[in-house]
Design brief:
The chain is α/β, with parallel strands linked by helices. The protein has nine helices and eight strands. Strands 1-2-3-4-5-6-7-8 form an eight-stranded parallel beta sheet.
Length: 252
C-alpha cells in the first residue's frame, strides 16, 4: 500500500472524473490520501470528500498564496474547526517567495498563527516551502510543532538536514521524475529513507512523462519506482518505509 500524502482531490480539475481517478490509483496500490485545504472556504469540501473515501484524511489550513483573500478572523474560525473535527494536520501552510507580488509579512502572520494552532491541538503541519526554506526554518525553531511534511521539498542538503532535525519528513513526487532535477534527485537518493514520504500534489506538478498534463494520484506508484531506482534498492523497501513514515507523521 502507498499513501499520497499531499493531493488536492477537491480541485475542479477532477470534477468530471474524480471516481475514475481514485479507482486508477487504487488499482496500482495507492490506497490512502491526505487532502489539505488551502482556504477557510474549502475546508468543508476536503472534509466531506475525505469522509466519502475510505482510508482518506484531511487537513485544514490557509495556503500562503491565498492569505491575500483571507481575514484575520479566519484563524479563530480554523480553531473552531480543529476543536470539532478529525483533521490529521494543519495545512497547507507556509511561505512562498516565488510568486511576484505576494505579501511576505502577511504570509508570515498567517503562518505563525497557524503554527500556534498546530501547537495548541498537537498536530503535524503540511508545509508549503518555495524559495523560503530559511525563513520557514526560522519560524519552526521559534514555534516548535510536532513535525509534519516539508511538501515538494527542493532545498539544499543543509536545509534538508535542518528540517529533519525538527522532526519533518520531506515530500517527493513529480519533480523527482525529471532527469534535470539534479538536486532533488540527489537528495531523494541520499537522505535517510526514514525521512521520506511520497506525494502527487495532483493536479499540480505533473511528472516528466506527462509534463503538460494533469497530475494524478496513480503516479505515486511510479514515483516509488523512481525513488527505488535512485537509491538502488527494491521497490518493496520504498513502499514499506514511506508508508510507515506517513502513518507515523500523521499519527494514523
Amino acid at each position: 500500500m502507498l499513501i499520497d500524502t499531499h493531493i488536492h482531490l477537491d480541485a475542479a480539475e477532477f470534477n468530471a472524473d474524480r471516481a475514475a481517478v481514485i479507482a486508477a490509483a487504487h488499482a496500482v496500490g495507492v490506497e490512502r490520501f491526505v487532502i489539505p485545504a488551502v482556504t477557510l472556504g474549502n475546508c468543508a469540501a476536503v472534509r466531506e470528500l475525505a469522509q466519502q473515501l475510505p482510508g482518506s484524511f484531511y487537513a485544514y489550513g490557509i495556503h500562503p498564496l491565498y492569505v491575500g483573500q483571507a481575514q484575520e478572523s479566519d484563524i479563530a474560525a480554523l480553531r473552531g474547526l480543529f476543536a470539532n473535527s478529525g483533521a490529521v494536520a494543519v495545512g497547507e501552510i507556509g511561505l512562498d517567495g516565488f510568486v511576484a507580488g505576494a505579501d511576505p509579512l502577511r504570509q508570515e502572520l498567517f503562518f505563525v498563527e497557524q503554527l500556534k494552532l498546530a501547537r495548541e491541538f498537537d498536530l503535524p503541519v503540511l508545509l508549503h516551502v518555495r524559495r523560503a526554506q530559511d525563513r520557514v526554518l526560522k519560524y519552526l525553531r521559534r514555534y516548535r510543532v510536532r513535525g509534519g511534511v516539508a511538501h515538494a521539498f527542493n532545498g539544499s542538503p543543509q536545509q534538508a538536514e535542518a528540517f529533519m532535525r525538527l522532526g519533518f519528513a520531506l515530500g517527493f513526487g513529480g519533480a523527482m521524475s525529471y532527469s534535470g532535477s539534479l538536486r532533488i534527485r540527489a537528495l531523494a537518493g541520499s537522505i535517510p529513507l526514514e525521512h521520506i514520504v511520497l506525494e502527487s500534489d495532483a493536479p499540480d506538478i505533473p511528472p516528466a512523462w506527462d509534463s503538460q498534463g494533469r497530475n494524478v494520484p496513480a503516479n505515486v506508484a511510479q514515483f516509488a519506482r523512481i525513488l527505488a531506482e535512485l537509491r538502488q534498492i527494491d521497490i518493496s523497501a520504498v513502499t514499506q518505509q514511506t508508508t510507515a513514515n506517513a502513518l507515523q507523521v500523521f499519527g494514523l
